């Protein structure tokens, strides 16, 4: 087999390798465009990206996709903390839930995730301490068969316009798979209490229905496969209690080790595919700037947005 034309990433620090079992296990096999990614390289990626990645995942219940034999082997989605897990993967009890969830809080937690071959990180849209108070909305644009990326880009802009009209600043992310996510930060410290998940879900559905009504040939809020042909499914269901979405900067357990990559609207206008960014490229590059730096400052209470939407309707 011919070697891929891309240089291998630098070898991770020896002391970090020492903490990993099977550091040379291949989690992502090589493809024509990308070299292999080993467990040690995943750990290295998590450590390098910790300043950007931790704010996205820390202190939130975390579902993790584990691929102990690599992405082509058996994989499983883990939500709950189990006996024998590293104490760095801190169990957290959510009121009303019988089993504790997993949270991490620091670089050690990220390293422990690499150790168990966690190749995808999916946080809740709420913090573990306040699980019923959403602080993120995620609009997940899922292209049906036959939808090209230019159409997804245009759809993202239309969604952005609706959110703007609600007073919400939104931020795009390439999913690393087939689509794009549009993310909004919610303010959570209102007098009289912040909105809960039922309101968040109703709001997200309302916004998506608005787009569907405006342009039913392009959009659907129906999950059924048949309806999705040639349309974009506006997946509002990320916005619910216990629902997750892929974390910004998380790798994806797909060929070539693509990343869920937060980007700016300017970058989206120039983007050509949702899996354009790769883990191995990031291992060799300087840490990127956070394209979402403005997000926290732009957070708005959901109740204000609901009010603006009501007046608009
Ligand atoms: P794409 O752009 O390809 O759609 P995506 O990350 O948006 O990528 P979806 O298929 O739309 O992928 O998945 C939506 C979300 O559902 C995921 O991000 C994840 O948080 C959650 N999810 C995925 N797989 C599982 C699973 N096996 N169990 C529970 N939740 C899952
Ligand atoms: Mn999606
Ligand atoms: Mn989806």
Automatic annotation (TrEMBL):
Parent-protein start and end of this portion: 500 to 812 of 812
Lineage: Bacteria, Pseudomonadati, Pseudomonadota, Alphaproteobacteria, Acetobacterales
Protein name per Swiss-Prot or TrEMBL: DNA ligase (ATP)
């Amino acid at each position: 087999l011919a070697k891929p034309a891309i240089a291998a990433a630098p070898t991770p620090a020896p002391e970090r390798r020492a903490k990993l079992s099977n550091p040379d296990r291949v989690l992502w096999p090589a493809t024509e465009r990308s070299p292999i990614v080993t467990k040690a390289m995943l750990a290295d990626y998590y450590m390098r990206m910790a300043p950007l990645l931790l704010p996205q995942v820390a202190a939130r219940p975390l579902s993790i996709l584990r691929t102990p034999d690599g992405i082509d082997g058996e994989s499983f989605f883990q939500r709950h903390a189990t006996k024998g897990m590293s104490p760095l993967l801190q169990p957290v009890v959510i009121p009303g839930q019988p089993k504790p969830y997993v949270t991490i809080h620091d670089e050690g937690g990220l390293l422990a995730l690499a150790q168990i071959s966690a190749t995808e990180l999916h946080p809740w849209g709420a913090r573990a301490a306040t699980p019923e108070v959403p602080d993120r909305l995620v609009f997940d644009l899922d292209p049906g068969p036959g939808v090209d990326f230019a159409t997804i880009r245009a759809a993202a802009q239309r969604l952005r316009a609706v959110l703007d009209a609600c007073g919400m600043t939104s931020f795009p992310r390439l999913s690393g798979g087939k689509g794009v996510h549009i993310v909004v930060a919610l303010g959570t410290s209102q007098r009289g209490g912040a909105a809960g998940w039922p309101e968040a879900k109703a709001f997200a559905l309302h916004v998506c229905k608005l787009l569907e009504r405006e342009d039913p040939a392009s959009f659907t809020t129906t999950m059924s496969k048949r309806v999705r042909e040639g349309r974009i499914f506006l997946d509002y269901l990320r916005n619910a209690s216990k629902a997750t979405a892929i974390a910004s900067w998380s790798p994806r357990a797909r060929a070539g080790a693509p990343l869920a990559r937060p980007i700016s609207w300017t970058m989206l206008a120039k983007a050509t595919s949702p899996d354009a960014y790769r883990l191995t490229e990031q291992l060799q590059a300087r840490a990127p700037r956070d394209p979402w730096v403005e997000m926290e400052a732009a957070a708005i209470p959901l109740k204000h947005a609901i009010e603006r939407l009501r007046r608009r309707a």
